[in-house]
Design brief:
disordered N terminus, alpha/beta, Rossmann fold
Length: 269
């Protein structure tokens, strides 16, 4: 998946850029949108940008107040913070910021993908899935998920936990990952793992934002962490730039920092 000349140079760029991270909350306080004033497209190519965040589209069996497309502005905030900390070319979509709009359209995301077809996924080294409530994957989706991960892809799954609905999506994702990769394949990510210590240091591992504090679990392919699964709603943390949801700035900064750690790890392995 990621053996071409352009991808290799991108990996080297991101890996080297990590050493020059700005660090600290000041770098996260409010990057200028004008610096990245680019016209949004429905699907952004990694041939044009160093980092993008594709969102995974999926269906919940029961109506959910936090479906797959909740808070596109949160993804935008993470990208904006990332390009402040690691100098790289990103695409910030127009028409979304923080928690507005509550539910995004395709144009509010860098790209929208699903696991129905394997080929579109191959161009993206990193994809992001969030939401709440019960969902399922067809046999074809499971096969494509397995193929994507084993060929070098990285999947971040974060339970939205909106309205304190518990951890239904987390538990369902945990079960599907076990069924796809094997019962013992999903395991706790050690707190000394690189993903907690590359750009920003998290000595205790995954920071708690809200939801269920299960810690971080993942699927490894060899030594490579390939799936990061959590139920502490770091995505809502990214959306809370004005500190209205959690009432504390630390939740916003911690969620962005761990998001950037995950993103950098995914792009450099």
């Amino acid at each position: 998946m990621r053996t071409g000349r352009n991808t290799l140079s991108r990996r080297e760029f991101i890996r080297n850029a990590g050493a020059a991270v700005a660090g600290g909350a000041a770098a996260l306080a409010g990057p200028s949108a004008s610096a990245q004033d680019l016209r949004a497209r429905h699907a952004v190519s990694l041939e044009d940008y160093d980092v993008i965040i594709p969102r995974v589209r999926f269906e919940c069996r029961r109506p959910a107040t936090g479906p797959w497309n909740i808070y596109p502005g949160a993804d935008r905030n993470l990208l904006a913070a990332f390009t402040e900390a690691v100098r790289c070319k990103v695409q910030l979509c127009d028409g979304c910021r923080d928690d507005q709009p509550p539910l995004g359209r395709d144009r509010h995301f860098n790209a929208v993908v699903d696991f129905e077809s394997a080929e579109p996924l191959r161009q993206y080294p990193f994809v992001f899935m969030t939401g709440e409530n019960y969902f399922d994957f067809s046999d074809r989706c499971r096969q494509n998920l397995k193929r994507y991960i084993e060929e070098g892809g990285f999947l971040l799954i974060d339970d939205c936990c909106l309205n304190c609905t518990g951890d239904i999506l987390y538990q369902r994702a945990f079960r599907i990952l076990q069924e796809v990769f094997g019962r013992d394949a999903v395991r706790r990510i050690p707190i000394n793992h690189e993903v907690f210590h590359n750009l920003y240091d998290f000595p205790a591992g995954l920071p708690y934002i809200q939801g269920q504090d299960h810690g971080a679990h993942g699927v490894f392919v060899g030594d490579r962490l390939a799936v990061f699964l959590c139920a502490t709603d770091i995505h809502c943390g990214w959306a809370d730039r004005r500190h209205r949801m959690f009432g504390r700035s630390q939740a916003y900064f911690d969620s962005l920092k761990i998001g950037m750690n995950i993103l950098l790890y995914a792009l450099s392995h």
